[in-house]
Structure formats: C-alpha cells, structure tokens
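Internal tracking record. Fields below are filled automatically when a chain is submitted to the structure queue. Please do not edit lines marked as system-generated. If the sequence contains nonstandard residues, flag them in the REMARKS field before resubmitting.
Queue: standard
Priority: normal
Entity type: single polypeptide chain
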Amino acid sequence: MSLASGRPYLAIPGPSTMPDRVLQAMHRGAPNIYAGALHDMVNTIWPDLRTVAGTTGHVAMYIGNGHAGWEAANANLFSRGDRALVLATGRFGLSWADAARDMGVAVDLIDSGAAPISLDRVEAALRADAAHAIRAVLVTHVDTASSVRTDVPALRALMDAVGHPALLAVDCIASLACDEYHMDAWGVDVTVAASQKGLMTPPGLAFVWFSDRAAQESRRSDLRTPYWNWTPRSTGSEFWQLFCGTAPTHHLYGLREALDMLVKEEGLPAVWARHETLAQAVWAAFAAWGRGNPAIALNVADPNHRGRSVTSARMGAPAATLLRGWTESQGGVTLGIGLGMSTPEDLAGDGFLRVAHMGHVNAHMMLGALAVMEAGMQALGIAHGPGALDAAAAVVAGHPAA
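SYSTEM-GENERATED OUTPUT FOLLOWS
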C-alpha cells in the first residue's frame, strides 16, 4: 500500500510548484493578439519585471527556457572569436560555457567544481588579460546543480579594482525572486532568468535584462540574428516585435498573475525572507541528520555561499537514489536528482539529491517534505541523527513574522 495518493509535491528545482491562481489565469480562450486587452495587460508586465531584477534598464522576453536565455545573452554580447571568462560553480555554469563555445566564442574557464569561486583566480585571469580581450564575465548567481551562490557584489568590486572593462553577465535562472538580487546596485550588465522557478510560471519564457552599456556594446555583435536580437524585443514600437512574432499569450496571463503575487501582494523583501527561512529549515534538518551519519552533509559548507532556492546534499551511494524513490512512491514528494554531482566513486550520482524550496512554497510544504524524507530514512534503514524535524520547526517558529 502506498501513502502517495493525494496532491503530490514537486520539490525539484524547476519546474517549481505552480500556484493555482497562475494556472487559472492561463485557463482561457485565445485572445485577440492585434489590439486591446492583451496589449494593455502586457504593458503592465515590463515595470514589474524590472522590479524583480532590481533594474531600471532594458528587458527582453523570449519564448524558451533557460538555455534560450543563455543563447540570447551570448548572441547579443559576442561576435565569433570573442573571448568570454566563465566562472563555473557547477553543472549549469559549465553548460553556459558549452553554449558559448558552440556559438563560436572562445571561452576561458575557471571551473570551481561544485564549490564557490576563488576571487584570487578570477583576479589573476583578469590581470593576465592586459589587452582586455575578454568581452564579458559569465557567472551563475546560484548554480541549480551544486546550489553554490556566488557573491556578485564582491565579483563586481574585484572587476572594478582590477580596472577590467568586461561586461558582467549573471545567470539568475535558479535564484531570481528567491535570493536577494539587485542588478543595478550590484553593477551587473546582463541578467538571465526563466519563468519556471522563482517566477512561478510554467516553463516557456526566458528573460534577459541588460544595461545601457550592454545595449551599446551589443551593436557590434555579429552573432545577433533577427530572432535573438534583443533591441526590437525591448524597444519595438509594434506589439509583435516584442516577441518576434506571435506572443506567448497564455504564459503572459500566468506571468501577470505571478508578478501580482510576488511584487504587488507579498513584496520582494518578504519573498526573500520567506526563502531564507525555508532554506535554513532544510539546512537545520540536514545538520541534525548528519550528526548521526557522517555521510549526510550539504554540498556547500559555508551558509554564505548557499543558494536560498535549492539545497544540494550528499547521503552516500545508493542512499540518495533509494530515498528519492521512496519519497515519491510512498510519500508523494519528488526530490531532485544529484545533477552533475557524480564522483569517481559514485559515477551515477546515487549518493546525491537536491531539495528545492523555490517559488510557491510555504512552511507546511517544506516541513512536510522533510518529515517524508525522515520517514523514508526510517523505512529504508538509512542511519541518521535525531531531532531534524524539531530543528526545522524551530527555524520556522523563529521567523520574524512569527
């Protein structure tokens, strides 16, 4: 007999749980795309997208996923043969580097594995580029696989101190509307995100925010094609230009509802605080479990370098894979695979998993997922320390709003 019947909980780092309100907003007939209510509604989206990213700059929207956002950024930032410095803290940083290479960009890679970047290594790379051939520095704010969070303001300060003119481009696909982020205040030139994580909208939309300087520099980029060119998407005088064709109408209705919830109702400071608390509840549970089993630990030791939207953890092979199977089949909770976290001793990554706490998530969802995980450890005989649920509950009880 399974106890998984009922409403399932998808605790993977995207697509995140979709609010009923978002899904209901999308549940409508096709609108008139040429004039009227749709145009009026879309006009209200752009200011809120700027608010979410913390910018007064430009924003372009694409029909696509996070990979589409990477390609859009690459196409507008680079010409064939240009150099990029990519700072990878996990699988998705490496993937952005691969995408740039495949488009003809020469990539200088600083691969930190699944660990925070070394600013000393970045400084050495920038100082070695005396000719300033590096056109842009690409980095993930939170890598969805490793859950490493990069200190973007510190990186910007380093680039300024070195005096390197490269643009700074940040992948916020896993972090936007989860981790605190201020594009303009932090000196970011390009920000990339997608709809299916903190923005609580089904997969299908990618976003690129860019500064005036990035807009100016993009005019020399020869990788831009009519579809990827961000200029008409951000400044087009005709509605179709904003999407290079037919608008993603139903996604736009869902996005409008999600932005209402995030910006106009809860407010971004409260959104960030909620994600902070839920992340700390997950960390507290893992700390307690790990006191009874040294194989259980978070991938990122320093809380300052942990993303607030997803937590990557190890449990020792094959415990993580077994636990994921149990929680889904017996408890209705789907946990994330240990993507990109395999080791020579664990090629299949059976010792790693990820717990998402992004987007439309509250205390009972997170505490319930942790309780199901503990039940699974008991059922499977996976050694773990006591007190995890009490520790997580204490974090929630201590939340300022309480």
